[in-house]
Every structure is written in C-alpha cells, then in structure tokens.
Amino acid sequence: MAPLREKIRDLEKSFTQKYPPVKFLSEKDRKRILITGGAGFVGSHLTDKLMMDGHEVTVVDNFFTGRKRNVEHWIGHENFELINHDVVEPLYIEAVDQIYHLASPASPPNYMYNPIKTLKTNTIGTLNMLGLAKRVGARLLLASTSEVYGDPEVHPQSEDYWGHVNPIGPRACYDEGKRVAETMCYAYMKQESVYHHYTLFNTIPPSQALEQLRVIVNFVVLSSLLQVYGSGSQTRAFQYVSDLVNGLVSLMNSNVSSPVNLGNPEEHPILEFAKLIKNLVGSISEIQFLPEAQDDPQRRRPDIRKAKLLLGWEPVVPLEEGLNKTIHFFRKELEYQANNQYIPKPKPARIKKGRPRHN
Ligand SMILES: NC(=O)c1ccc[n+]([C@@H]2O[C@H](COP(=O)([O-])OP(=O)(O)OC[C@H]3O[C@@H](n4cnc5c(N)ncnc54)[C@H](O)[C@@H]3O)[C@@H](O)[C@H]2O)c1
After folding, report:
1. How far is it, in rounded angstroms, from Cα 354 to Cα 359?
2. pLDDT at 199
3. Which is the catalytic residue, given 100, 149, 161, 174?
4. Is the CB of 302 under 6 A from ligand 1?
5. Residue 132 phi/psi, 5° resolution?
6. How far apart are CA 96 and CA 321, in angstroms?
7. What pLDDT does residue 205 have?
8. Which residues does the chain have with pLDDT short of 50?
9. How far is the CA of 102 from the centre of ligand 1 (A)?
10. HSE-CB of 101 using CA atoms within 13 angstroms
C-alpha cells in the first residue's frame, strides 16, 4: 500500500505545486536544453531563466558544490528534469538541442580539494559532453574562465591572448583543465563539426554555497572581519550573475564559435572592493591582511569589445547594486541556515597518503 499512498501524495503535490511563471512556447520554438552543473551558482540562475522562457531543461549535477535546493522550485514541473550524474562518466540521453557545459568546481578551495578530480571533470567530462553533442547534433557552450589568462602580461585581456599560466602550481588543475577543455572544443569543431561556443568570466555570487569562500563571499560572510590576501592591490572585475546569464543565452543562440569574454570591464583593486563592502555591510569593523596566495593574478580586466560587437551584449547591473543584492542574499541565507539548522554537506574523508583518492 505504501507506494500507492506515495504516488497519490505526489499526484496531489503536483496539482497544488506553485512554480515561477513560465512562458508558453510552441513546440517549434521550445528547445531541449541540458545544463551540466545546473544545481550550482551560475547553473541554477541559468536554469531559472531558461525555464521561465518556456524551454525544457535537464539539469545534470553530481552535487559536489551544487545543491538541490538551488533548483528544487522546479522539481515536478513537466519541463524540468534533475539527474544526479557525474560528467566524468558518459551520459546517454537523446534529443538535446543545446548543452550548457558548466560542471566544474569554480572556487579555489573546491577545485584544489581534489585536483585530479578537477582535471578529470574538465577534461574527461568535457570530452563526454562533446561526444554527446556530436551524437545528438546539439550545440555546446563551454563555461571557461578568465583563469585561462593566468597572471596576464597583457592588459586588458582580449580573447586572442594566449595566457600566462603556471602549469605546475596549485591553481593549474583548474586553469589548465579549462585550457584543455577549450582545445577539445576547438578540435571537435574542426574535426567533427560540433558547433560550440565558449566564454570566460568572473561573477558576483548571490547564490553560492556558503563554504565556497571566493573573494566577495569571504568579505560578506565573515561580517565583522574582511580578509584580504596580500596587499589588496591586485585587481579584479566582477559582473552580476543576471548579466552573465543573459550573455550566455545570447552567445548560445549566436553564430559565434570562438571564445568570447563575458565580464565587467570595470576593474578595481581588491582592497577597494573590501572598503566598499565594509561600507555597505556596516557591521564590519576591520580589514585583515593575509599572506598572498600563490599564483594569484595581479591584474584582471576583460576586454569585452567582441561581445559588444557580435552579441550586442554588455553588463548593465552597476557594481554597487550587484553587491547590495549579494549582501542581501547572504543575510537571507544565514537566516535560512539559522532557522533550518543547515549543516554544510560533509566532504568525503581524506584517504591516507599512498592510496588513490581521485574518484
Ligand atoms: N562563478 C564565477 O565567478 C565563475 C567564473 C569563471 C568561470 N566559472 C565557471 O562557470 C561554471 C559554474 O561555476 P559556478 O560559479 O556556478 O560554480 P559552482 O561550484 O557553484 O557550480 C558548479 C556545479 O558543477 C557541479 N559539478 C562539479 N563537478 C561535477 C561533475 N564531475 N559532474 C557533475 N557536476 C559537477 C557542482 O556540483 C556544481 O553544481 C564552472 O565551470 C566555472 O568554472 C565561474
């Protein structure tokens, strides 16, 4: 009897479930879209946009850094599917028009946690997705990163800059993993005519797992203390996630099949970000300086002329507005955690030296 009762309960739930408003698209205009890493920060915002635009979205994620909670408001919707799958393994699904390939840890603590796995995700995972794209005739968009430019010797960085990356440093698993992923996309386009797009960016996170301590998250979560690595003179340029998502969708629907920077060209020293956040948060009492991180790029600013010219895209959310939304998000997140006694997902135990730990 229990399964029947469960089925009835699910059915009742599906009648009463409220979803965000979804546009109606005719079958001709409705795309079947796969998003790897769709339960992560960028992926879940992209999922929201594509679902609300009326497309059919399948999210594939192994929940290493992503959370079901980021997409749970779509569960049960007829246009939505969530698959727990690791992209390092082949994925056998049919009928896909577009693949947004975002699966990869993105913050240094997460990608350095298991560097071999990071490499496998970005190399074998990308190969698997390109193979799938070839088999089903889909377009693929690779989320690359401005980290492929390394510690750049050219400023600002345009898409034809080859980069300056340390291949054996602590960040190499991510930087070089993404560089190989770009090479794979290029090879698949030349040899197999797999149509692809790829993009490089840095965003302000309003929806990231709290344990992902990226620059701004460091600042906001540790609300009485801002931590800055090195002198804080290293520069970064951040865009708000809604700008990025709009850029990704325009890129996917364009004819461009080469790298495109999607970023905010407004560059600031990290210390300036810290001071701005200190003012916006109010409760922060001091800025603490930590030792410089190894291979931390000194300057970073995307040249976005290509995106403007070919996609008509540029970021529109001003920095302060993006930061305010981010701070609001983190306040709500902390409130949620306090009320729900959220316990961050435990990381698998480290295996003793000498034994493999790269699965
Ligand atoms: N957020 C940024 O500032 C930024 C900047 C540059 C590039 N990117 C790229 O954008 C993509 C998304 O970044 P994000 O900020 O949303 O990170 P995130 O960590 O929030 O999301 C990544 C998602 O990929 C999933 N994932 C990781 N390994 C996987 C695997 N082997 N199989 C299946 N799923 C896997 C994670 O569980 C998570 O849901 C990444 O590829 C990242 O390299 C992000």
Report:
1. 15
2. 65
3. 174
4. no
5. -65, -45
6. 36
7. 42
8. 204-214
9. 5
10. 33
What's the pLDDT score for residue 208? Answer: 39
Half-sphere exposure of 34 (CA within 13 A, CB side): 29
- pLDDT value at residue 355: 55
What pLDDT is recorded for position 83? 98
Per-residue DSSP letter, 68: G
CB of 123 within 6 A of ligand 1: the answer is no
Mutate to test the pocket of ligand 1, among 34, 36, 42, 120 (most ligand atoms within 8 A of CB): 42
Ligand 1 centroid – CA 282 distance (Å):
31
Q: Does the annotation count 174 as an active-site position? A: yes
Provide the pLDDT for residue 329: 79
Is residue 66 lining ligand 1, measured as CB closer than 6 Å? yes
Helix (H) or strand (E) holding 74: none
Atom 23, ligand 1: residue with shortest CA distance: 37
Q: Is ligand 1 within 6 A of the CB of residue 210? A: no
Tokens representing 100 are 């947004």
Task: Return the residue whose CA atom lies nearest to atom 1 of ligand 1.
Answer: 203
Query: Domains of the chain: which residue ranges?
Result: 24-204+238-266+298-317
Class of domain 24-204+238-266+298-317: alpha beta
| DSSP symbol at 56 | E
Atom of ligand 1 nearest to the CA of 214: 3
Distance (Å) from CA 308 to ligand 1 centroid: 25
The structure tokens 């088999």 sit at 135
Which DSSP category does 237 fall into?
A: -
Is cis: bond before 156, omega within 30 of 0? yes
Q: What is the pLDDT of residue 89?
A: 98
Q: For position 197, what pLDDT does the model report?
A: 66
Q: In whole angstroms, what is the distance from residue 128 CA to residue 331 CA?
A: 38
